[in-house]
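Hi support team,

I submitted a single chain yesterday and got back a structure, but I'm not sure I'm reading the token output correctly. Could someone confirm the output below corresponds to the sequence I sent? I've pasted both exactly as they appear in my results page.

Thanks,
R.
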Amino acid sequence: MEYTVQKLARMAGISSRTLRYYDEIGILRPSRINSSGYRIYGQREVDRLQQILFYRELGVSLEDIRDIITGPTFSAAGALREHREKLLAKREQLDLLIANVEKTISAEEGRMKMSDREKFEGFKQKMIDENERKYGKEIREKYGDEQVDRSNQKVKGMTQEQYAQVEKLGEDVITTLEKAFATGDPAGELAQKAADLHRQWLTFFWDSYTKEAHAGVAQMYVDDERFTAYYDKKQPGTAAFLRDAVFIYTGMVDNDNA
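Hi R., thanks for writing in. Yes, this is the structure output for that exact sequence:
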């Protein structure tokens, strides 16, 4: 079956302009242009559009989607399995938030009492689930199930004030790191402030802090491409810069990186 831009857009629930834009940026080309100059899409393009919309639903940028689906190792079946896992995780998070909202309504109407801690259970569980989905396998291999489970329990036990503080600290780390990176000096005042903020942020998740563990996490940001992509999304090299700053902060300077 073949579709024009308008027919495919109508079937997929998107605008014709969106399809034309996907063609312009090279993420979804039509299978052919007919004699009248209309874009024509076949089954292969329909399947690819479905994949694109799946990724968009999960919040993946168009640039990243293009890299994924045009990569030499891309597997449509594998991508669908991955989509299913992520959607199930998203559904679980939504169920928790819905339950939290229902409790809050009951509390507001005087039908039950709700502690301050309960008010934030859904948000904290979402944080845990997202971290597990993105980095759980690697973190558990590096630190062990027991340590990771303790960390998750610590997050669940956070008070409202602690939860707000850890969220702000995470933002402060990124903001300060961006400014520090512009100086180009991992030993400078701003870079060392970023390293200290990073330490403070970590202590909300760890039972105890050690310089060795801090340096190990910073190195992992460079060794694991997903962590690197997170820190490097605005400026390539930021993950390595943070690693160097933390090495200096902890006194674990690697001569190869000094």
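A quick pointer for reading it: Residues 210 and 250 are 9 Å apart (CA to CA). Let us know if anything else looks off.

Best,
Support desk
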